[in-house]
Amino acid sequence: MLKLYNTYFRRTAKRMESIEEFLSGGTLLAKLFLHIEADRGYWLGESERLMGAVS
User: Fold this and answer.
1) Per the domain annotation, does 41 fall within a domain?
2) Using alpha carbons only, what angle is made at residue 51 by residues 54 and 10, rounded to the nearest 5 degrees?
3) Can you tell which superkingdom this protein's organism belongs to (predicted)?
4) In the chain, which stretches have pLDDT less than 70?
5) Could you tell me the residue range of the domain that residue 27 belongs to?
6) Which of 30, 40, 48, 53 has its C-alpha lying 20 to 30 A from 23's C-alpha?
């Protein structure tokens, strides 16, 4: 779990990454998300839904 945490946050600490960039980045965490659901459209839709719910 620590490996997943460090892989993602170390790469994105200096800039914001879009969901598409994150999923295309090849990190362990991105691969895990795509293994759970391979359809990138699903993750894009869910992130938009979540952002709408918190704003």
Assistant:
1) yes
2) 110
3) Bacteria
4) 1-15
5) 2-12+23-54
6) 53
